[in-house]
């Protein structure tokens, strides 16, 4: 990857990060995907005592349905168990296939739970922090949420991407697609609006022109 492309992608990476400060919560909600380090981050937060309940949400999505035969949440929960999280502290939602469903189906799963949970730490991939926050606030606005992710730099993430079938160029294309969704999804009722600085949108357009368009949605 040449430096101009790297710098454009780094602009998007930095924008997607929210840099929230962790605080204790009622539950940790892990939004599952192809990146198993998200499971590890969620388990670490539980073991550090940030919340007494660890929830994994994810069935099979666009990427993982060609990678795995079992739901993402089942695989992620097994990782947490292997790391020492007690089974009785884990809840699994294994039907969702996108971020909106992650939140909605988790909300439905918890509807009868007493006492009701009010505060959440959402754990997601680093470049999906902002979209996860915007989606959660749209689907479940009455709850308090902060978002975190595996604590990797952009360079570290590209060097350690979690599956051999997902290249650094694939990661950049996914980031480009996520920024398009941050712009377009509020009008569809999927997310709350997020401001996009001019320099971030200019980086997006340059990356699209350079061919990083494989995860864009049709207008």
List keywords for this structure.
Rossmann fold, 5-stranded parallel beta sheet, YdcF family protein, Cell_Envelope_Assoc, Rossmann-like_a/b/a_fold, DUF218
Explain what the structure shows.
By secondary structure, the protein is of the alpha/beta class. The protein has 2 domains: 68 residues, no CATH class; 130 residues, HUPs (Rossmann fold, 3-Layer(aba) Sandwich). It is 44% helix and 11% strand. The mean pLDDT is 91.
Name the CATH class of the largest domain: Alpha Beta
- Percent in helix: 40-55%
* Topology order in helix (H) and strand (E) letters: HEHEHEHEHEHHH
Number of domains: 2
Q: Runs with pLDDT <50, length 5+?
A: none
Shape: globular
InterPro entries: Cell_Envelope_Assoc, DUF218, Rossmann-like_a/b/a_fold
Protein name: YdcF family protein
Domain DUF218: 26-144
GO cellular component, one term: plasma membrane
Topology, element by element:
Layout: H1 3-16, E1 27-31, H2 37-47, E2 54-57, H3 72-82, E3 90-93, H4 99-109, E4 119-123, H5 129-139, E5 144-148, H6 154-159, H7 168-188, H8 198-209
Parallel strand pairs: 1-2, 1-4, 2-3, 4-5
Helix pairs in contact: 1-7, 1-8, 2-3, 4-5, 7-8
Summarize this, please?
The model has no long low-confidence stretch (mean pLDDT 91).
